[in-house]
Amino acid sequence: MDFADTKRKGTISGKIFMAAVVTTIFIFIFRQTPSSSTSNFFSHREAGVTHVLVTGGAGYIGSHAALRLLKDSYRVTIVDNLSRGNIGAVKVLQELFPEPGALQFIYADLGDPKAVNKIFSENAFDAVMHFAAVAYVGESTLEPLRYYHNITSNTLVVLEAMAKHNVKTLIYSSTCATYGEPKTMPITEETDQLPINPYGKAKKMAEDIILDFSKNSDMAVMILRYFNVIGSDPEGRLGEAPRPELREHGRISGACFDAARGIMPGLKVKGTDYKTADGTCVRDYIDVTDLVDAHVKALANAKPKKVGIYNVGTGKGRSVKEFVEACKKATGVSIKIDYLERRPGDYAEVYSDPSKIRRELNWTARYTDLHESLQIAWRWQKSHVNGYGTSRATA
Ligand SMILES: NC(=O)c1ccc[n+]([C@@H]2O[C@H](COP(=O)([O-])OP(=O)(O)OC[C@H]3O[C@@H](n4cnc5c(N)ncnc54)[C@H](O)[C@@H]3O)[C@@H](O)[C@H]2O)c1
């Protein structure tokens, strides 16, 4: 009896155990199926499909670049830690391109080499567009170590992973801040790079690491040095939505829009006695649509063992006063302007010579009407008063 009972108990518990195992396997397969089939697209190379890793693709420029790549039938993986970007931008892209194998988002921090290595081992990338960075000059002077870590050290992590996993093309987001305060204008790619703030220095160091590495590698490298980026998607799908707490470090277009929306009481223009036509600083404003076009052209023209370095600007300087007038016109708001003393560290005039990129990549800026760029950006701002919403992660 004891024996029989034990045997029976054993049979029942065995059946329960088996049922549990089968159920678990079933649930596991059920759960895994969609992501496994999706990840297959991303984990294997496919003839005729170029798979681009877009770091920082939840951010302003990275999301616009991802949109353009997806529109041009590239396969895109976005890696972002959402410290500054918006998951809302990724959702917009996912809704526009829901086809399996078009877009995947991976939440990860590029400062974590293990996580980065895992991403590279599980995905078959053909190229990397490395946008992810903290990118405010003022903030970099207050938190220099954060900038060297996030920009320089993380670029090293990405580059090591690329080398280890045989990813052969890098398009790197650099900046005119690497030039510092050149004595002569316009800035060519040959102009000495003497950055004057941690942001520019960290980017210059990252460039140096890439250049040194490329000397003994067959990697194709394109370094793009952007000037001041403005505007947004002309079809109004994406925009620029920095975190409110970064407002004090913000860029001029954001400051103008905040003033136009009444979030800020007005706009502070710092310095009216520069040696420029109207006394205010002069900058080269490049529309984000043109900028991402330069990335696509850089990717198409990248060649193994070759490094291309290009300024991405319009070649035309506009004064802060001109910018403010264009912003007033675009928003239809008579923004209150306070003219203040110069801000230490600001240089009078910066604009690019874009002839190299025109000559070698057949790229030229087309959105060069400030008013039009700002009008497009303002339309998005007005219809997204809270940016992409509240779904952002904390830093
Ligand atoms: N906006 C400009 O005017 C300008 C000018 C010159 C160069 N750039 C360069 O362009 C790139 C993009 O700038 P942006 O204006 O789109 O900035 P952004 O802040 O909108 O986007 C940067 C993105 O990178 C992500 N990120 C930051 N650190 C990360 C990390 N450790 N791991 C993963 N993701 C991380 C952020 O969450 C964000 O989504 C930057 O490299 C910047 O230096 C920008």
UniProtKB/TrEMBL annotation:
EC primary class: isomerase
Residue ranges of every copy of the NAD(P)-binding domain listed in the record: 53-368
Pathway membership, UniProt: Carbohydrate metabolism; galactose metabolism
Keyword terms: Carbohydrate metabolism, Isomerase, Membrane, NAD, Transmembrane, Transmembrane helix
Enzyme Commission number: 5.1.3.-
SUPFAM superfamilies associated with the record: NAD(P)-binding Rossmann-fold domains (SSF51735)
Biological process, per Gene Ontology: galactose metabolic process
TM stretches of this protein: 12-30
Cofactor: NAD(+)
Gene3D superfamilies for this protein: NAD(P)-binding Rossmann-like Domain, UDP-galactose 4-epimerase, domain 1
Pfam families registered for this protein in UniProt: GDP_Man_Dehyd (PF16363)
Family named by the database record: Belongs to the NAD(P)-dependent epimerase/dehydratase family.
Record's protein name: UDP-glucose 4-epimerase
